Hints:
Layout: E1 2-19, H1 25-35, E2 48-52, E3 55-61, E4 73-89, H2 95-108, E5 113-123, E6 128-135
Amino acid sequence: MIVERQTFEIERLLMYQTIIDDKDVPMFLSSLYKNIQVLDVQICGSILITKQDKITRFFVPIDKIIIPNKNYGFKEAIKIKNALKFRHYGGFRKISDGLQELNKYIFEKKLDCLTDSYIVPRDFVNYVYDIYVGIS
C-alpha cells in the first residue's frame, strides 16, 4: 500500500557509506546497534538507508552533533514535506522489489521524484520496511 502526502523529518545524522550486498544489510545494522557507543553517541530514532548503484548509505540519528572524519560524515537533518510511503514486507534482499513497485506507482501517476528513496527498517523480526520518497 502506498500512502501519499507524508511528512518525514529526522535530525542529527551520522552518515556512513559502503558497498554491501542487500543480504548482509540486516547483519550490518545489528552490528551498528551494538558498536555505536565507541563514538560516544546513542542512536535516537530509526536508521535510514539509501541505495545508489552499488553504494549503500546509512543515516543514523544520534543524540549529539559530531565532527565528520574520513570514516563517517554528519548531516544536520533530512526533511521531506511531500512524501510517498510504501510499506515493504520481506527480507532486505527483496527491497529492490519494493523500490520497483514504488517507482512503478510514481511513473503511472506521472509524479516527479525530488529525493532519493529512504528505506526505514520498522520491524527486524517480521522484516517490515517503510520506503519514503519526496515528490513534487
